[in-house]
Amino acid sequence: MTDYFKKSVLELHGYTSPPQREYRVKLNQNESPFDVPDPVKIELTAAARSLLWNRYPCNESPALMHRLAQRHAVEPEQILLGNGSNQLFQTLLAATLEPGDAVVYTPPTFSLYELYTRVYDGRLVHVMQPPGADYPLSEVLAAIKDHRPRLIYICSPNNPTGWEMDLDSLTRICQAAPGLVFFDEAYGEFCAQSAIPSLDKFENLLISRTFSKAFSMAGLRFGYFVGNAAVIAQLRKVNIPYNINIFTELAALRLLEHEKEMARGIEFIKKERDRVFAALQSMAGILVFPSAANFILMKGPAGLDLFQALKERGILVRDMTGYPLLSGYQRVSIGLAHENDIFLQTLEQIMHDNVEKR
Ligand SMILES: Cc1ncc(COP(=O)(O)O)c(C=O)c1O
């Protein structure tokens, strides 16, 4: 294979996707627990029949760009559309990284940042941010000074710790950064504030959003960047043409008409998150961290394999073992009320049995 592939690719493990179904309660991928309502699905599939499937879609869907620009009070040329936000992240790296360019980031965070940076032969410079800790601002500023990174990655709210960045820290980073500041708001709908208004102040700020979480569209793949027009124009040159298929375009436009109903779902998830957090906090032996997203990071007592114990009882959470600093940690997505109840009751039982055993 060494004749065929880059060294950085041969050394990679690649992304391993967690199990998709077969479980009583699936709380492992931070998806929305609400599927698109049936009447909307029926309407969308009927509308899809009248489209020409043999023709290319309209490149870069002007309708979607316009609608999203309205949503965020920016101009359409500040929007770049992607087949999921991950696809755009790859576009970003293809457009910016020369081999050996430094990238500053704060693990533990979303695993694809490291994976793709390696693919593009970037030089990863990490500053650790343990769960529950503040953003290591002065260390990141020092790393920026020392390494002059081409890119800085910030995930806020952060997957998997649930931490949310304050906008003053973001200001300091944008002022100090010589390159682009990639600010991933995949969970932006669940937290207090967005960084999008800061785009007016910082040319180098680039924000990523997705319809995979709050918009219930993980299966259809749609995400977008919001940035300054000059930055987006460069990325547009590298982005894959026709990356938004006609069905995704139809569905995203239709769901944007339903923002009010979606907002109710988001409010529900936030309330459930607070309820699940309070219940976990009151459980002896469970360590839990406040979250601004639709998931919660937690850890059970040493010697108890919580992931396995929950799995055996039909509940799938995300095992974070393997992530830096997170051996023995679990990330649990917020589900429907009865799913959260099953999770909490089962966990309580597991913890009770564990105490009895000792
Ligand atoms: C921080 C973060 N960014 C991006 C994504 C992926 O988004 P998409 O489905 O739009 O590719 C995820 C998905 O888990 C995520 O956690």
Secondary-structure element pattern, one letter each = HEHHEHEHEHEHEEEHHHEEHEEEH
Radius of gyration, in Å, reads 21 Å
State the domain count: 2
Give the CATH topology of the largest domain: Aspartate Aminotransferase, domain 2
What would your notes on this structure say?
This protein is of the alpha/beta class and 358 residues long. The protein folds into 2 domains: 7-34 and 260-357, Aspartate Aminotransferase, domain 1, CATH 3.90.1150; 38-258, Aspartate Aminotransferase, domain 2. It is 39% helix and 14% strand. The chain has 12 helices and 13 strands. The chain has helices at residues 7-10, 38-49, 62-72, 85-96, 111-119, 137-147, 167-176, 229-238, 246-256, 259-281, 306-312, 337-357, and strands at residues 25-26, 79-82, 102-105, 123-126, 151-155, 180-184, 205-210, 223-227, 287-288, 295-299, 315-316, 318-319, 329-333. The protein has a 7-stranded mixed sheet, sandwiched between helices. Strands 9-10-13-12 form a 4-stranded antiparallel sheet, with helices on one face. A hairpin with a 6-residue loop joins β9 and β10. The longest helix has 23 residues, at 259-281. The protein is globular and about 60 Å long. The mean pLDDT is 95. The protein binds pyridoxal-5'-phosphate. The site of pyridoxal-5'-phosphate has 13 residues, from α4.
